[in-house]
Design a protein that fits this description.
Low-confidence stretches: none
CATH superfamily of the largest domain: Spore Coat Polysaccharide Biosynthesis Protein SpsA, Chain A
Shape: globular
Helix content: 40-55%
Distance between the termini: 47 Å
Number of helices: 11
Mean pLDDT: 95
Radius of gyration: 19 Å
Oligomer: single chain
CATH topology of the largest domain: Spore Coat Polysaccharide Biosynthesis Protein SpsA, Chain A
Structural class: alpha/beta
Strand content: 15-25%
Length: about 290
């Protein structure tokens, strides 16, 4: 069985190279092969040159370019040239916690060869701050804390940062390029869920997420998520997950709540008060994105 690791990247040269080095350390059982397909999505930091000049490692690396669009465009371009039986979707900052991650994904798919079987692995921050831990508790980055091992809803949990699917199924479905940066994996999960996809959550399959986040960066992300969520609810009005919060009367309070929250943080708020301040600020950003505000 061949595993194609599919990685989109943009302006993350050093982080990508570290991830490729980590993938080279993977152990593969007899009968299991692996390749890495990287799509450079318009990097300006010398990513393509660095990958091309990188000494050949244990896993062959194919580099393709899709300078326009976003991560969904890049993944589609990578899927077109991938040659494996299964596609393992990873972010360029996702490092396996153990040296048998690829082998474990391959084994699970060998045991369940049907097209409608997919695997969701776990993701954890590599160097979490208090704020980053809060994003996990709040379910704003990923929602692993509430998941039990076994089948989970693809529309809610098909995270393209660590999931494996049959390559033919994924290539045929493709990522919807109307969602260039965020929401594309939820949209894909909605469509594949309608087709009966079984998404098997395996928490023992862990990658460490090497990406530091602070409040301001995350608020910007939440604004983009708000815009993507509105589009998802427009494209799939009946199937969009309930977590994609729609406008309500309390949204009028977010601007004031966010200002109060920032004042509390400047005053040194801790504990639940700090959590509420963070919530107000990021939900204000989400609401701005939903409303199309800059």
């Amino acid at each position: 069985m061949m595993v194609s690791v599919v990685i989109p990247t943009r302006d993350r040269r050093d982080r990508l190279l570290a991830t490729l080095d980590a993938l080279d350390a993977q152990r593969l059982a007899p009968g299991v092969e692996a390749e890495v397909v990287v799509c450079d999505n318009g990097s300006r930091d010398g990513t393509a040159i660095a990958v091309a000049r990188r000494p050949r490692g244990a896993l062959p690396v194919t580099l393709v370019s899709r300078p326009d669009g976003g991560a969904s465009h890049a993944r589609n371009a990578a899927l077109e040239v991938a040659g494996g039986d299964i596609a393992l979707l990873l972010g360029d900052d996702m490092v396996p916690a153990r040296d048998d991650l690829l082998d474990a994904h391959a084994r699970l798919h060998a045991e369940r060869p049907e097209d409608g079987y997919a695997v969701l692995g776990r993701i954890a921050w590599a160097r979490p701050t208090d704020f980053m831990r809060w994003t996990e508790r709040a379910g704003l980055q990923f929602s692993f804390d509430d998941l039990q091992a076994g089948p989970v809803d693809p529309a809610r949990h098909l995270y393209s940062s660590h999931a494996s699917l049959k390559l033919g199924v994924l290539r045929a479905a493709g990522f919807d390029e109307r969602f260039p940066f965020l929401g594309e994996d939820i949209e894909l999960g909605i469509r594949l869920g309608r087709q009966g996809l079984t998404l098997d959550y395996r928490p023992e399959l862990l990658v460490h997420h090497h990406h530091q986040q602070d409040l301001e960066a995350f608020a910007g992300r939440m604004q983009a998520i708000g815009a993507a969520s509105r589009r998802l609810c427009e494209v799939h009005p009946r199937d969009a997950p309930a977590e994609l919060t729609r406008p309500s009367a309390k949204w009028a309070l977010y601007p004031v709540a966010a200002r109060v929250g920032r004042a509390l943080l400047r005053a040194g708020a801790r504990g639940r008060t700090r959590d509420r301040a963070w919530t107000a600020i990021v939900m204000r950003a989400y609401a701005r994105g939903w409303k199309g505000q800059s």
